[in-house]
Design brief:
The chain has strands at 4-30, 40-56, 59-73, 80-94, 103-119, 122-148. It is mostly beta strands. The chain starts with a strand and ends in a 35-residue tail after the last strand.
Length: 183
């Protein structure tokens, strides 16, 4: 007895890469002439961001930049000062297989940042941040949707299948200005 199977194609996501790569930060910052000398460093922060993501064959390319902010006291210890400096980076992550037309989710995560004053006008910055990435490729799989035959009993169930039509990821900043009271 021959039975005819009817098949349907459905969209299936396959995770090609899910991991992270550490990006080192090594900088020497010289204060501009209009900034006062450093008496004491209060805080050092790094703000990395991913600006471009692309896949070429079996390589994931991530480009971006980072800003380092250092808060310090001036020699009179009368005022908190801030010094900013930035740089760009480019990272390449090897994938196990080519992933053309895949979706890339990428975000940075700060690991650590250390800052020390080598002189009253120079700062030495060391740190790292991780680039967390997930590459998802959409494929297709066949499922049996029906079987033709009079002596065949079928138990059918309905399953919802999502197929992404568009995908976007954009980083943005939110700033807030706070008024500090006297005292």
């Amino acid at each position: 007895m021959d039975y005819m199977l009817e098949r349907e194609k459905v969209a299936v996501d396959e995770v090609v890469f899910d991991g992270s790569q550490e990006q080192p930060v090594d900088m020497d910052i010289s204060l501009p002439d209009y900034c006062p000398d450093i008496q004491r460093i209060l805080k050092c922060q790094i703000y990395p961001r991913v600006t471009a993501r692309s896949i070429m064959g079996d390589r994931l390319m991530l480009d971006g930049n980072f800003t380092v902010k250092v808060f310090y006291l001036d020699p009179d210890a009368a005022c908190v000062r801030c010094c900013e400096s930035g740089d760009s980076y480019s990272a390449e992550i090897a994938l196990k297989q080519p992933a053309d037309n895949a979706r890339v989710l990428a975000s940075p995560r700060v690991e650590y940042i250390n800052c020390r004053a080598t002189s009253p006008r120079k700062l030495d910055i060391h740190g790292a941040f991780s680039l967390c990435a997930r590459v998802i490729r959409q494929g297709q799989s066949e499922l049996v949707s029906n079987i033709a035959g009079d002596d065949v009993e079928q138990l059918k169930s309905t399953a919802a299948v999502n197929q992404p039509v568009g995908f976007a990821q954009q980083q943005f900043s939110v700033d807030e200005v706070l008024e500090l009271g006297q005292g």
